[in-house]
Amino acid sequence: MGKVTRKRYAAEFKSRVVLEAIRGEQTLAELASKHGVHQTMIAQWKRQAIEGMAATFSGRRCLSPRSALLMWRNCTRR
Prior knowledge:
Layout: H1 11-23, H2 28-35, H3 39-58, H4 65-76
Helix pairs in contact: 1-3, 2-3, 3-4
């Protein structure tokens, strides 16, 4: 048997999937099936993207996950 390595996904692919997840038009399960990725991976990428986005606009270097989520929720309210 050969050595098993983890699959690596390009940043562009992750970005595309995460944008679809943030839009919320499809469930994570639907997106996972569409893109051939497990839904927990999409959830993890989405969380990382939201944290990174909040940090970018806050001027801070790093936010706690809770702070990032609160900022994202405040921005998406209509």
